[in-house]
Amino acid sequence: MNPLRFALFVKHWKNLSVAEMGDKVKSLGFDLIELPVRPGFACEPETVERDLPRVVQEFADMGIDILGVTAANALDDERLYATCAELGITQNRIMLRTGDMTYWDAEAKARKELDAAVPLCEKYGVRIGIQNHKARFIASSAIGLYHLLKDYDPKHIGAVWDPAHNALEGEEPELAIDVIAPHIHFVNLKNGYWQRTNGPEAQEAQWQVHWTSGPHGRASWPRVARKLKEVDYSGPFCFSAEHSDSDALERLVVEDLAYARSVFEEAGFTI
Predict the structure, then answer these.
(1) At a CB cut-off of 8 Å and minimum separation 6, what does 224 contact?
(2) Residue 253: pLDDT above 90?
(3) What pTM, to 2 d.p., does this model score?
């Protein structure tokens, strides 16, 4: 069995040049990244045909591969698919906000956009991976993600499963994986917990998420690893590098990578 691959989402280093970002990625222990195609980043959505080949080549020259992109382009923007296909990039991760719409109206709108994207996925061999996300997103839970994805071929439209957001919404990881496993493209790794931001004297409790290190959040990485091993998952993992303590971000990323390696090796994965 091939060893697991761990990628790093590089959104936190957007102000670095590509060369500087590559040096940072290697110093943190990675040779695989998820690349934003978003306004203000090295690869802009409006100029993706020009920017993406240049950026990918610069990373390749440093020995860094691309797991996929997370693009702000419309889902029917053929330029993105064509450019990704030319470069051998097969994955675009997206999230779907509900905005002010009802959940069902937002899901219906998302389905129309996904239906328009399927022919492009088929033509260019580029998959769309929808990530579950807490709060006002379509698919804040694994069961919601399944409801959206069940009518699509995972070769074209699938899931980027995020156990941390899953845990924040109260789903057990084993049951979530039971629901979503056949649709998973890859798995995000981060961790967090709900933290009260006011005291008991307040009229109403208020909460926020504290993004923490791998061992200390609501999502149990050992349980996630054991269940993924049980269902024969062999895809990649991507570290979101989401930490409330931004001053400690890079130290925590290194620690999380070491923790993940130990956890998944103990669960029986080849590291």
Answers:
(1) 163, 173, 177, 187
(2) yes
(3) 0.96
